[in-house]
Specification:
Structural class: mainly alpha
Largest sheet: 3 strands, antiparallel
Number of helices: 3
Helix content: 40-55%
Strand order of the largest sheet: 1-2-3
Radius of gyration: 53 Å
């Protein structure tokens, strides 16, 4: 029983301490007054404007991908330095418009060299035919060996073959100027 009395007394003492602390806290805090009501913000003046018609810009923002209607992949068949580009990125290009121009000097040099080789072959052919025409009558008189006439025939045939080969594989242009330009094959955006 004494144990029960001791536990009861401890419980009463704890309750009294809690009640006393709460009472002391309520009087220890300063009194709070209601905050003053702030003044109303100043009014904004409103100006009237007559109505008018006009375009209003519309801005659309979004995430997405822009794809062109037509795209063209240009693959070169020749190599060279590009000297001029005839469009800017995103520009609409019509069929036949200039896309780029390649430096014509290397191509002009090749053309001139091919023309020079063709002229050389023609001159050698004329010379070989003249030698054959000159040596054939001399063979009948015995003043030229048959080997020399055979050599003249072979040279003439060789130069005829070279001249014919150059006509089929040589430059197709009739003039002596080359203008290497790239043109748009179709309308492209």
């Amino acid at each position: 029983m004494t144990r029960l009395k001791t536990a009861f007394a401890g419980l009463l003492l704890t309750a009294a301490l809690i009640a006393g602390g709460a009472y002391a806290l309520s009087f220890a805090q300063p009194e709070t007054h209601a905050a003053p009501i702030p003044a109303a913000p100043p009014t904004v003046p409103v100006v009237a404007e007559p109505a008018q018609s006009g375009d209003v810009p519309i801005y659309l923002r979004g995430i997405g991908t822009v794809v062109a209607y037509n795209t063209v992949t240009v693959r070169t068949q020749v190599q060279g330095q590009i000297t001029q580009i005839g469009f800017t990125e995103g520009q609409r290009v019509h069929a036949g418009d200039l896309l780029a121009q390649i430096d014509p000097r290397p191509f002009q040099a090749q053309l001139d060299q091919a023309i020079g080789n063709s002229e050389r072959d023609k001159a050698q052919l004329i010379n070989a035919q003249a030698n054959l025409a000159r040596d054939t009558p001399l063979l009948a008189k015995g003043w030229v060996t048959p080997q020399q006439v055979d050599l003249d025939k072979a040279n003439a045939g060789q130069f005829v073959g070279q001249s014919g080969q150059r006509k089929t594989s040589g430059p197709k242009r009739t003039g002596r100027q080359i203008d290497p330009v790239l043109q748009a094959p179709a309308e492209v955006l």
